[in-house]
Specification:
Elements lengths: L9 H27 L10 H29 L6 H16 L5 H29 L4 H23 L15 E3 L2 E3 L1 H23 L1 H11 L1 H6 L4 H26 L6 H16 L4 H18 L8 H15 L15
Antiparallel strand pairs: 1-2
Length: about 325
Amino acid sequence: MADRGTSPAPGSRARRTRLGVAAVIVVAAVAWVVGANAPESSSLSNLPQALVDGVKYGLIIATASIGLSLVFGTTKLINFAHGEMITFGAVVAWYVQAHGIPLWLAAVVAAAAGSAFGGALELSLWRPLRKRRTGLFQLLIISLGLSLAVRHIYLIVMGGSSRAYREYRIQQEWHFLGVSLTPRDVGIMVVAVLLLGATTWMLQRTPIGQAMRAVADNRDLAEASGISVKRVVLVVWMMGGGLAAVSGVLLGLNGSISWDMGFGILLVVFAAVILGGLGKANGAMVGGLLIGVVSQVSTLYSPPELRTFWALLVLMLVLLARPEGILGSRHATRIG
């Protein structure tokens, strides 16, 4: 007897083909309209700079996406308050460095505070709700309410104006092969790469990383095998909070700090997680880099306001061909 789960039905393939053709037509039409109105200054000579800027932006997105992906992989919760966890790191670092402390040390303090924030949310909110067997839809609505509440607390505390870190405001640019970089840009990329590498190593090589993957694969089986699921979920929330906080510092260093900066980037972070594959930490890294590069390169040929549109268009096209995401699995959601 043939296994029906191994291959889609002919009708399903035909529908997917029609959707793919329609999507290509839409993309071609939009590209033609945008290209006809592209800024005259856009040229291939600016492509290297756009690629480097895209990699830098993508690394920030990837760092912000890992925590969201880890939380979904272990708890199946879509945390809409993740943007406020990003803002939390940027705000804490700004207040710490405003008292004369170097920014690198303020970033360490922000990472520790972000981890504590994530752990506190798990212990005081999410774990009690899970004990009461609250449904995932209700948890999603609660995360939306939490996002609104925390975001407006930031507005009350910080005000509506944007702020910048005291250090690294004005720096001399380095020019190399047609690309301009400041020491701040290099620092952002180096820190992000180190964090992504350390996270990958932890998930693949350490006992706690293996426990996270086991819980994501089969929660009940992992618990029956002696793994403390509560401890693993707590570590995931703390790790996700710390990574979100550092990504907020990097985002604020790349631009400015505002009360709604995390909410402004949340849609792109979700796109990176879905593009890479839900629950796949490495997939979130790949998705973040791809989203960042597409966003920045698109500004050469279309208005900068449309860069998120192009990133989401790429997401749609990839999901039409591979609904589970770039590194996702058809049969199971995994981490690592």
